[in-house]
Amino acid sequence: MYDTFNESFLYMLIKCYKLRYIDNALNEFSIVIAQFPLLAELDLSISKIEQKLNIFQDGKKLELGYRQMWNQKAPELIKNNFVFLGTSKGNFIETNESKVYCLRLDPNFGIQSSLLETYYTAAKQSYDGDFSREFVITDYPTIDKPHTGFELPFKAKAS
Fold this sequence. Notes:
By secondary structure, this protein is α+β, with helices and mostly antiparallel strands.
């Protein structure tokens, strides 16, 4: 079943879990989370796992919480869920503007706080399945130039 999952997505989830213990993170750490690609891969992965998972009690198959919510059309499950909506993953992602969160821990800042975060809305774009994007610093701050330069991993929505 592993080969049915997006490996890049699974590695990104591992990186997300490391955020739980941010104080123990590596000296250099970067993560980019885009809303609709994340939702699409998460919904697809959970749907695949749920289809394969069969739990029985007293000879009867139990209906897990996910399937109960699906059958009840629970808004928190079906909103922005391409699997439930019956559309293609690519179309779902490419027709929505994603909120994007970027975080980078970088000891090269040379300042007390080595954490840089940004949050923005990305323009609609084609889906490539790549969750390995980095939040790249292009220009480190100095006393004379206190601003940090960076590259956005996705093109920002025009204002």
